[in-house]
Amino acid sequence: MSGYAVVVGGGIGGLATAIGLRRIGWEVTVLERAAVLDDMGAGISLHANGMRALDALGVGEAVRRAARPQYTGGTRTPGGGRLARMDGAALERALGTPIVGIPRAALHRALRAALDAGCVVTGAEVTAVDLSDPRRARVSTAIGSGSGGSTREADLVVAADGVRSRLRALVAPGHPGPAYSGSTVLRAITDRPLMLASDFELTWGRGAEFGHIAFADGRAEWHAVLNSPPGVRFPDPLAETRRRFGGWHAPIPALLDATRPGAVLHHDIHELVTPLPSFVAGRLALLGDAAHAMTPNLGQGACQALEDAVTLAAALAAESGPGRRRTASQPGAAPGVDAALVRYDAERRPRSQAVARAARQAGRMGQRLSHPLAVALRDTALRVAPSGVTVRAILRHADWTAPRLTPPTAAPGS
Fold it and tell me: Which of 230, 283, 341, 351 has its CA 20 to 30 A from that of 89?
């Protein structure tokens, strides 16, 4: 048996979903609104659960080759004092793989390389999804400017269209949507390699955070998070970052000096504070930020999307019995899809929403704190905490086992 799926969104979650569905024998089209895949973005840390998901998708080794393991680092004060130390080797012993740092562009390239040419359609604006037929969905698309549109019929539509998902309303019509977290982030990748003493580091001040991720080629991603009203933008983002963080400990000034002004990205951080009552409706499944957008305080956003992708594919494979193989032009009533979506929702919604709550709480107790007394208490608590506390905190969310992805067995003679 195979089905045909349309994935809306060509980001990390959407591409991973396409790979997972292809591995279980489905045909997939990814519709990406952007006309050009320019691979913009900064860097990302992938915890063990994300790497296990990538291994299940068959791309783990390709990602590891492009990534840098994170063994050293931790949390500091603006003056450089140590608050907590990250023991990457202990995490690797416990989980079998270290946390890795990788440019988002490199991760996107590794995912796209695992898909057939033509699987991803760019410049495709999804204008409507019709779920009125319980056996199939109809996806209407406008391609390019003034070039008309098309309609696809699919056994499954996966909405991986991000925090501002327009398809989310089909699952939860009355949902308030994403809320501003109270923090804004400026980030960039350095233009040149630097000699860095740590693989990953966070520095917490009053209502502010600065962090870096070292890459395999010697460059680094840095991010600066500020408590701020939404929508505030700076004429010169790099100059503003220097003004706010230039007096903090090394290597922060060097990271800023190695950055081209035009490379700085600035985004407000939004999250789904109100949890969704379901991730599915009819033949539509929400995935990644569309389902559970969270703050980046635990570094779990992309990892949860990767978990979603593998879990969805595994549920479809497990719930699909032997049947006749169909092509994309013959969708409808793919065996087990409805049961698989129920299973996907039951497995993914509680876990991902719990991680989102934990990320929000981590931000409130970390970067978001601004009162001097609260900051002092936080810093003291981190200094006196046993060395294993940080490892256990990471294990709480990163210790996830990926299901195996195997195509369902076809009936004899099919």
Answer: 351
Position 236 in a domain: yes
DSSP 328-383: TTS-S--TTHHHHHHHHHHHHHHHHHHHHHHHHHHHHHTTT--SHHHHHHHHHHHH
SS3 for 245? helix
Q: Which residues of 281-315 are buried (b: 16+ CB within 10 A; e: fewer)?
A: bbbbbbbbbbbbbbbbbbbbbbbbbbbbbbbbbbb
Q: Give the tens place of pLDDT for each residue, 319-375.
A: 975 543 444 444 455 769 999 999 999 999 999 999 999 999 999 999 999 999 999
Bridge partners of 284, per DSSP, are 157, 281
CB 115 within 8 Å of CB 23: no
Q: What is the DSSP letter of 404?
A: P
- 275: which residues sit within 8 A by CB, 6+ positions away? 292, 349, 353, 356
User: Residues 309, 53: contact at Cβ < 8 Å?
Assistant: yes
**Residues paired with residue 122 on neighbouring β-strands, in sequence order:** 32
Q: Is residue 192 part of a domain?
A: yes
Render 113-125 in DSSP notation, one character per residue.
HTS-TTSEEESEE
Structural domain contains residue 103: yes
Cα dist. 287→163, 202, 313, 409 in Å?
Answer: 10, 29, 12, 26
Rounded to an integer, what distance in angstroms lies between the CA atom of residue 20 and that of residue 405?
A: 7
Q: Containing domain of residue 171, as a range?
A: 4-398
Question: Is 398 in contact with 299 (CB distance < 8 Å)?
Answer: no
**Cα dist. 391→45, 90, 212 in Å?**
16, 7, 19
Q: Which two tokens stand for residue 180?
A: 């501003």
Distance CA 93, CA 84 (A): 19
Total domains present in the chain: 1
- The H or E element containing residue 201 is strand 200-204
Alpha helix (H) residue ranges in 151-278:
168-171, 237-245, 252-257
CATH code assigned at 60: 3.50.50.60
Tokens of 24: 């279980």
Burial classification of residue 393, based on how many CB atoms lie within 10 Å of its CB (0-12 exposed, 13-18 middle, 19 or more buried): middle
Task: Evaluate whether residue 406 is within a structural domain.
Answer: no
Question: At which residue do the structure tokens 């107790």 appear?
Answer: 365
Across the strands, what pairs with 267?
A: 185
Q: State pLDDT tens for residues 303-322.
A: 999 999 999 999 999 997 55
